[in-house]
């Protein structure tokens, strides 16, 4: 489930510092020099950003971060995924997600007082999977504790067009990585979830407490971009579903949905985008199709308001239960 949100990103130079690393050295014969470049620090920053795609999280599943001065997007991030327990008899929990990010950072080359911004494009894709086991904490099975083992695999590829032409004309820097370079990232981690689910004709209640950790490290690609990141997220999520009066569709009650979530970010992930927490509140509707022999049992449409340190935004989310 992916929900786009818009936010104001006040520190444009922070994003540029995290993403722009390959051009660390400038030639003595070049007219322009590149500002404030530290290869290892920037590579670590790239992996810290990938943590948002490698850890399942409703609040940050999709973000569009804009520059406060120009309003243009500097980062677009989306995640689509889900998880489910196979059955009470076989309480194996499986989850998976796929994430995509498009970076549009600012790279500055200067010659004395003359400075120019170089347009760059960075793309990253991430696959995440997890397997766990449900341990009931009550006879009813409404409360379960769920340890989960997670793995992830991602790639970062650069795409330089106008910026490469300008650098070739004005500097003697090696732009091979920027134009088609690639870095492969592997991750290993885990999560612990406390889950409560109550289903009744009057209302349904879902409540989740989750702590997730992931270690990401470069496993292939450009040696100059080798990095690592250790990130973790603590999240609480609550959802209430209840019938709307006596309305029914497809032979089942037509429900309204209320939900709220709060995510706190720790480790290398915290602050890399200018905030260390995101919260959301939402309301919507749910259509129940379980009376028919189709694989989608419920479909939800939810509008949300998101907020955090220096960020705020809105979203529309579409989700399905199977």
H/E element order: EHEHEEEEEEEEHEEEEEEE
Number of strands: 17
Please describe the biggest sheet, giving its number of strands, its sense, and whether it closes into a barrel: 14 strands, mixed
Strand fraction equals: over 45%
Broad structural category: mainly beta
Please report the first level of CATH classification, the CATH class.
Mainly Beta
If you compute it from the alpha carbons, what radius of gyration comes out, rounded to the nearest whole angstrom?
A: 22 Å
Mean pLDDT, all residues: 76
What is the helix content? 10-25%
Tell me the CATH architecture. Beta Barrel
Report the principal-axis shape.
globular
Task: State the separation between the terminal residues, measured CA to CA.
Answer: 13 Å
